[in-house]
What does this fold into?
Amino acid sequence: MKAFEATNRYIRQASAIMDLGSRVERLLLSPEAEHTVTLPIELDNGELAVFTGYRIQHNSARGPMKGGLRFHPTVDVDDVRALASLMTWKTAVVNIPFGGAKGGIQCDPQQLSQAELERLTRKLTQRISAEIGPQRDIPAPDVNTNAQVMAWLMDEYSRLNGYSPAVVTGKPLELGGSEGREAATGRGTIFVVEDYLKDLDRSLPDTTIAIQGFGNVGSFAALCAHEQGARVVAVSDVTGAIHHPQGLNVPAIFQWVRSRKRLTDYEAEGVTRIAPEALLFLEVDVLIPAALGGVFTGENANEVRAKVVVEAANAPTEPEADEIFERKGIPVIPDILANAGGVTVSYFEWVQNIQCLRWTEAEVNSRLRQIMGGSYGTVRNLVKQRGLNWRTAAFVVALGRVAKATVLRGV
Amino acid sequence: MANELDSRLVEHFRCFQDLDAEHTEQLAGRLKEVRLPKGHTIFEEGDDGDTAYFLVSGEVEVRAACPSEEDCSLATISAGQILGEISLLTGSARTATAITLGEVELWEISRATLESAADGGEAWATRFLLGTSQTLANRLALVNQQIVGLLSDRNRPAEKRVAELDRLRDRLFSEWSF
It folds into this structure.
């Protein structure tokens, strides 16, 4: 919950700087619609189970709403509401023509068979099919939902409305998914790092990087950084952390983990195992949290010795840690900019579906490069011109774009 | 007492200025003196009422309920003016609330008194009705002007009626161009 309170705090800060006033602030923070649906399904044993599903549509001033669907026992309406709002700001920072939404089902997918999961996904799709759509609201994968779940959703929606691949993103490649989607978030993060270094007359080849998390985001961030010549000196996952002062052989580690081996079982000359938290305190040029939220707190932020923190994870920095970083002069490139590569390539998937086109991975990556570069530049200019910190500047850009669209369209 | 009242009535209220002494005395005999402290509600919007007041000293605020916010202040009445004349003439409920802004001195006149004086041909009653008609006519002329102003405002939206969102739009695009 703390991360969501923090989001609202950042939005209020940005709103105060822009002098939007409390009425407009309330207008921008209130969701447009909150749908709660009841989802009865038949379990494999013949019994009836009833779940609760949500789809909260926060803001559509800039376009159809976009945001993930999560299946988790802790999903509740407050959570989903805050996450929907965050999507509005994220799509605005990278200036893609989407608003924000989020949804989910309160359930434990670990306790459900594939067949039950499919029935549940189809039931949710039936219940919200009037509320979603390619020009209305486009779901995507999130916690415990994957390309298969998106495929069921697309199929059920298409049964009701005719073939509509653009109703959802994060689909399998075979059903209109996009090349480059899997790597997009990590790749986007490294584009941001590259641009940041360029402003300092530096480049990836003379840079050391530590990455916390080696999943969908961290592993691709590590791979992209390595491909461009950066020295990735440490990576970690839930099993622990590994370190090599001269730089790890990232492609080898990537293959190692892909073949379902434990990261900490990886062995090579010069590679040592370190405590997972020790990774956060290494003296590196760039520190990339790419796992969970709430990594940097008021207790540990003082020990961070990196020159810059780039948030590939959502909300890894608590507000108290933010203040400490600010005092220590460590810039924090915020999540809504640094991990927006994922939603950007989701947008590309939607564009390709609508145009019945297929882009190559090279085309996807080059367009992603442009969007991340443009967004970084806009935020960087505000940081320089107004003396704002990176997070506040990113929220000012986001809030500004949504506010402009809102006042142009009228209340 | 009567002399003092006579002179103040003539001094303050123009409509009684050319009444002779006899008629002035006749008027004075019909009025009831009322003294009220600061913050006193003389009458309230919606109340029944059939009296009007000559305000001899002090000030009275006249307020009416507005749909959008709290009450709006319609006018501040000062010595030499009449208040409550609408209910006096029509017998309808009070159309506004009158609250004293300080200590006030009033002379009250009732509908019954006015009617009987008019029936009896008392000269002051004619003067009073004429004076009140003039006040109402002036007010109507002012209201007509205001209506014309409101209508032309509505047809001239741009610079005159810049709403909150319009102002915000202009500011966003000038100050935050990204």
